């Protein structure tokens, strides 16, 4: 049966057009249950022995996805009208709903009600599209009741009017909360139901909402302006649009980058943020210039971080908000490799504003990890749901109010909570419990937390992905060797050099003399794209994950382990497929020619950096491998010098390594990672390959090459470094990367061997983030990689662990006419989306790796106190930020009333402090120093210190390092010598 549907729509050019579409209605659309004698057996998913079948409306599918994912919820009928609306309204929820439909165990069945002759309905001119869809769901539910009369059908909807109309038709309809309460075997299910905008889990719950919801409450925040007003304000220039970044170390301070203003807009206090969360796209109104302020110069204290109200009452919430708006203090241990907000402490007024509208929410659909805030009054547990506050582990996010019947059970657990709403009369957003991760403090639990917080996909690879992997054992076939498009390089003296324990070896090297005096230098990269075909399930999964994530004790792979550790890994003494770059090069590193080829190789050795270094250093070793390593190292030194002459920066980061107990898996020791010449040798070869491939691919595909650039940092980002350098008596020239590199080379102190590295670490923190992009997006002048001083750069050398390299391998193969140009590259929009995901996932993986280092550092120090050498990297009005080289730790030291006299000693050449514990201090911003009021203590940036390191637990069971100054003069000689 053919129906004609007519409707009007607006085009991209704002023209109104009428659209007519044919709509086919059929009788042979199956119900998905064997209880229906006319249903196709192959399509049946719903259980014939289920207690009932559930039908959900669109709002339940959108807002209650955590509830639907619970194991107790199955045998669910999803109408096609619901699935389509979810697809258009929320891509993330749609993907999760599709996963439920695709899961054999969940028994979710999609009924195509819009194309069934008996369930399709026409829209009434007097009803809204939402009302029409609700009616369609009710009609389809009634059809099921007639089709399978012995099976109860329950429609789940939180819309009271929808329930009323369903009941009039004789359909059993329930709210989600009422249904959850009806399942005695899953008492936690009631906690998982989402809260509506009125602070209640559904419209039937008596007394289940937040306290005081039935009373008139004082408005704590301004209402958000409607989108029409926001759009007009942005167009007129009265409002400014941007993404909110909340200071990780001070959640009451946020920044919105704005092109229209030309710099970040400061948001001082939660009131100014107006219920916006980190990552939200917001509309900001600038305050009058006389109300502009500067970023805080205070260190923020852990225990003062958003202390929750003892009573969840209107008056107490008002007090909390007023205190928050004033900027309660917070501090956090800085994870290795992280740093304090660079803009903090400048003392200069900057554009300041307030959020007046939310353009796009960025609330995590999978929730936030943390723990329940203990009941500070010690009240006895009450029967039924309790209103409690949830404390996220990430300080950028506010406390979340939830209802739970499991408060006592969850007291010592890390849990996940999702946000449902944030009303203008509440100091906290409302949310619901999602799941339990494990016991607080357990290493596996805390690892799960950091993976969730950084959105790392840890799901097992699907059977469809594994089906793309060749079965083991795998070996190179004769057809690969004889392939005219693949060169046999098994005779070359190839080896790999990697960290100890590396199993996913994706690069190998060789060098050999050629007739005539030149050298052949080769970089051989695992030929992952031979196994990873475009358009396959494995390719889609790899593109989504984008990168492998490396933790201290764990690796979350981008590709299945049979590929990463066996088939593609360039292990020693086995034949493997590779993509090779071969240069003819002189001993002074002048490139004569270069060629690219798919190849078959056989690595002769898989060395660690230490093993390679020992062969380089021991001149007595004259075997081919050792001699070749020395040749490559000599070439690498020339390449490194040439890059430096072009202006490449030699920066530094505080990387650490752990010695792990093989039985307990706890860290036995932690120290700075040692970089050897062998590391630098491999780095130079990989840089050369990446630059060479970038040049070649761009010459063929000028408008669609995936490149990587590092933008020139704006001068304001160098301010912390410039001020610190000036106070220390040396200058930094930032006019170009070459000038900066030369300045860093001159930043030396004869009495402090670590001084130069510390300056380089501080310079690293002034840099912008390098990013992937499509060559057609920007002009060639913007391709430049500032840090490497390279006009062109890409990633080619690690396709096992980075999807960007996979894309570049395909491009390179296309230039050699081995494959066709990938479709993603042809489409500029698709390439832009791909690059965006690569950048996001790369950043997330970096943050997860650093969080893993922080976790293991906390585990190492949890049962001990250690005294170590430190350097002052920043001064604040009430304390210092110090860096501990031995452990790669940076964190705050407080000089306040809480800091006792004996913890205020030990600064390099500083005079003894006064004996009073009530010292006041004055920040000398221009001098990058802090001095006590009586002049007895003056501390400057870069000063040496000794600190005692221990672990304390703060708000929400957040463990952090406590750093306290100690008097170096009072330390025992042996202890001082160990610093």
Topology:
Layout: E1 2-10, E2 16-24, E3 53-56, H1 58-63, H2 65-69, E4 76-79, H3 80-89, H4 91-102, E5 108-111, H5 129-147, E6 153-156, H6 160-168, E7 172-174, H7 176-181, H8 189-192, H9 227-236, E8 240-246, E9 253-257, E10 264-268, H10 270-273, E11 281-286, H11 314-325, E12 353-360, E13 368-372, E14 386-392, E15 400-404, H12 407-410, E16 413-421, E17 430-439, H13 443-453, H14 463-466, H15 478-482, E18 486-488, E19 495-498, E20 507-513, E21 519-526, H16 537-545, E22 549-550, E23 555-556, H17 561-567, E24 575-585, E25 591-602, E26 605-608, H18 609-617, H19 624-646, E27 656-660, E28 667-672, H20 677-700, E29 706-709, H21 719-728, H22 737-746, H23 755-764, E30 771-774, H24 803-815, H25 823-826, H26 828-861, E31 866-876, E32 879-884, E33 889-894, E34 921-924, E35 929-932, E36 938-940, E37 944-953, E38 959-966, H27 973-977
Parallel strand pairs: 3-4, 3-6, 4-5, 6-7, 18-25, 19-26
Antiparallel strand pairs: 1-2, 8-9, 8-11, 9-10, 11-12, 13-14, 13-16, 14-15, 16-17, 20-21, 21-24, 22-23, 24-25, 27-28, 29-30, 31-32, 31-37, 32-33, 34-35, 35-36, 37-38
Helix pairs in contact: 3-4, 13-26, 18-19, 19-20, 20-24
């Amino acid at each position: 049966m053919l129906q004609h549907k007519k409707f009007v729509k607006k085009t991209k050019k704002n023209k109104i057009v009428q659209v007519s579409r044919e709509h086919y209605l059929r009788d042979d659309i199956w119900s998905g249950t064997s209880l229906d004698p006319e249903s196709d057996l192959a399509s049946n998913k719903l259980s014939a022995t289920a207690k009932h079948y559930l039908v959900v409306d669109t709002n339940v599918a959108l807002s209650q996805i955590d509830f639907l994912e619970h194991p107790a919820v199955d045998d669910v009928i999803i109408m096609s009208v619901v699935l389509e609306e979810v697809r258009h309204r929320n891509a993330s929820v749609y993907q999760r709903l599709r996963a439920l439909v695709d899961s054999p165990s969940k028994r979710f069945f999609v009924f195509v009600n819009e194309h069934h002759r008996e369930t399709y309905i026409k829209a009434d001119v007097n009803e809204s599209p939402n009302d029409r869809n609700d009616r369609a769901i009710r009609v389809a539910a009634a059809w099921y009741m007639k089709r399978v009369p012995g099976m109860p059908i329950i429609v789940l909807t939180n819309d009271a009017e929808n329930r009323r109309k369903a009941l009039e038709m004789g359909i059993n309809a329930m709210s989600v909360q009422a249904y959850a309460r009806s399942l005695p075997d899953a008492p936690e299910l009631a906690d998982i139901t989402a809260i509506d905008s009125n602070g209640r889990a559904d419209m039937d719950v008596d007394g289940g909402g937040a306290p005081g919801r039935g009373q008139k409450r004082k408005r704590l925040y301004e209402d958000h302006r409607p989108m029409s007003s926001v759009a007009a304000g942005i167009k007129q220039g009265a409002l400014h649009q941007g993404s909110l970044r909340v200071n990780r170390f001070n959640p009451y301070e946020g920044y919105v980058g704005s092109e229209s203003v030309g710099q970040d807009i400061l948001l001082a206090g939660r009131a100014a943020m107006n219920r916006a969360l980190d990552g939200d796209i917001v509309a900001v109104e600038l305050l009058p210039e006389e109300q502009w302020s500067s970023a805080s110069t205070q260190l923020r204290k852990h225990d003062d971080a958003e202390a929750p109200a003892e009573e969840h009452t209107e008056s107490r919430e008002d007090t909390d908000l007023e205190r928050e708006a004033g900027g309660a203090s917070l501090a956090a241990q800085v994870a290795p490799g992280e740093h304090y907000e660079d803009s903090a402490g400048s003392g200069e007024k900057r554009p300041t504003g307030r959020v007046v509208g939310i353009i796009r929410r960025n609330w995590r659909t999978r929730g936030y990890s943390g723990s329940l805030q203990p009941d500070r009054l010690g009240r006895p547990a009450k029967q039924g749901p309790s209103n409690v506050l949830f404390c996220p582990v990430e300080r950028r996010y506010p406390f979340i109010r939830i209802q739970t019947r499991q408060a006592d059970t969850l007291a010592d657990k890390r849990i996940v909570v999702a946000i449902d709403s944030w009303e203008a009369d509440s100091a906290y957003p409302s949310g619901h419990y999602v799941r339990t991760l494990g016991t607080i403090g357990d290493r596996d639990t805390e690892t799960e937390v950091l993976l969730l917080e950084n959105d790392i996909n840890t799901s097992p690879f699907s059977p469809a992905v594994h089906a793309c992997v060749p079965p083991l054992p795998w070996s190179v076939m004769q057809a690969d060797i004889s392939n005219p498009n693949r060169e046999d390089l098994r005779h070359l003296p190839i080896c790999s050099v990697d960290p100890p324990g590396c199993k996913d070896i994706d690069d190998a090297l060789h060098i050999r003399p050629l007739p005539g005096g030149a050298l052949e230098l080769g970089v051989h990269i695992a030929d992952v794209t031979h196994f990873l075909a475009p358009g396959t399930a494995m390719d889609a999964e790899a593109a989504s994950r984008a990168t492998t994530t490396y933790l201290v004790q764990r690796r979350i792979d981008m590709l299945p382990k049979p590929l990463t550790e066996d088939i593609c890994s360039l292990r020693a003494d086995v034949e493997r497929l590779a993509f090779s770059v071969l240069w003819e090069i002189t001993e002074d590193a002048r490139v004569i020619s270069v060629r690219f080829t798919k190849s078959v190789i056989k690595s002769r050795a898989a060395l660690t950096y230490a093993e390679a270094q020992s062969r380089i250093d021991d001149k007595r070793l004259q075997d081919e491998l050792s001699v070749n390593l020395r040749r490559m190292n000599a070439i690498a030194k020339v390449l490194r010098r040439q890059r430096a002459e072009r202006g490449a920066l030699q920066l530094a980061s505080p990387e650490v390594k752990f010695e792990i107990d093989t039985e307990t898996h706890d860290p036995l020791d932690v120290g700075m990672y040692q970089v050897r010449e062998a590391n630098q040798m491999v780095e130079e070869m990989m840089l050369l390959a990446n630059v060479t491939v970038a040049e070649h691919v761009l010459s063929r595909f000028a408008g669609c090459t995936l490149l990587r650039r590092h933008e020139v940092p704006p001068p304001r980002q160098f301010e912390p470094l410039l001020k610190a350098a000036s106070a220390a008596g040396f200058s930094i020239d930032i006019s170009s990367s070459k000038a900066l590199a030369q300045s860093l080379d001159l930043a030396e102190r004869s009495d402090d061997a670590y001084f130069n590295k510390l300056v380089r670490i501080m310079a690293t923190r002034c840099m912008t983030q390098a990013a992937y992009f499509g060559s057609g997006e920007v002009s060639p002048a913007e391709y430049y990689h500032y840090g490497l001083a390279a006009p062109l750069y890409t990633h080619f050398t690690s396709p096992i662990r980075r999807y960007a390299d996979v894309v570049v391998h395909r491009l390179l193969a296309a230039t050699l006419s081995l494959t066709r140009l990938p479709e993603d590259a042809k489409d500029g929009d698709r390439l832009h989306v791909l690059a965006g995901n690569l950048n996001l996932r790369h950043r997330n993986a970096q943050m997860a790796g650093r969080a893993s280092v922080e976790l293991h550092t906390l585990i190492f120090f949890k049962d001990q106190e250690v005294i170590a050498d430190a350097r002052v990297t920043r001064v604040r009005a009430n304390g210092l930020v110090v860096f501990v080289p031995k452990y790669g730790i940076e964190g705050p030291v407080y000089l306040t009333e809480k800091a006792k006299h004996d913890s205020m000693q030990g600064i390099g050449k500083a005079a003894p402090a006064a004996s009073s514990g009530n010292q006041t201090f004055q920040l000398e911003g221009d001098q990058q120093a802090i001095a006590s009021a009586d002049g007895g203590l003056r501390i400057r940036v870069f000063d040496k210190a000794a600190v005692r390191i221990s672990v304390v637990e703060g708000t929400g069971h957040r463990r952090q390092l406590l750093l306290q100054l100690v008097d170096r003069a009072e330390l025992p000689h042996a202890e001082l010598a160990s610093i």
